[in-house]
Amino acid sequence: MILVVFIAFLYGCATVISKMINYRATQELGTWNGSLVNYVVASLLALVMLLAATSFRPDLHVFQDAPFYLYAGGAFGVIAFVLSLVCLSRMKVFQSTILLLVGQLLAGILFDVIVFQNFTPLKAAGILLVTVGIFWDKRITTAKSEALEAPKDQSA
């Protein structure tokens, strides 16, 4: 179990690092070109990993027989990626990452409710607590930056 928790932690770190590198790519290349570069490189790496996997046995019938909705994961991935880049250009990394977390928590709860019919008020309270924390942080950060930018009294 500890290994899975550690891997999840590494995933979180990799997500933020990836987001920052990809944001830099969009600054240099533009949003759509930066996104394209990201997905071309990711696709090539996925292909290399797939070919390197010892258990890989090409079977095109698997793809043909898969329900259409299974391919939506890739579409949602691209949409999420582009949305994260747009958000990064308009807010701080910390805020963007926390809002990403809140969105993931909310989507997870909705998925639990729809698919597994499993909901507890404690889950909703957790999301609410994280969301309030985000707004609280934004309020404190804004107040501090406004205080720093306020004109100094020079009558003394």
Explain what the structure shows:
The structure is a single chain. This protein has 156 residues and is mainly α. The protein has 6 helices and no strands. α1 (2-29) crosses α4, α2 packs across α4 (72-88) and α5 runs antiparallel to α6 (121-149). The longest helix is centred in the C-terminal third of the chain and has 29 residues, at 121-149. It is globular and about 65 Å long. The model has no long low-confidence stretch (mean pLDDT 82).
Map the helices and strands.
Blueprint lengths: L1 H28 L1 H22 L7 H6 L6 H17 L4 H24 L4 H29 L7
Helix pairs in contact: 1-2, 1-4, 2-4, 5-6
Q: Brief description of this entry?
A:
This protein has 156 residues and is an all-alpha fold. It contains 6 helices and no strands. The longest helix is centred in the C-terminal third of the chain and has 29 residues, at 121-149.
Shape: globular
Number of strands: 0
The number of helical segments is: 6
Helix/strand-derived category reads mainly alpha
Q: Gap between N and C termini, in Å?
A: 64 Å
Provide keyphrases for this structure.
81% helix; 156 residues; mainly alpha; 6 helices
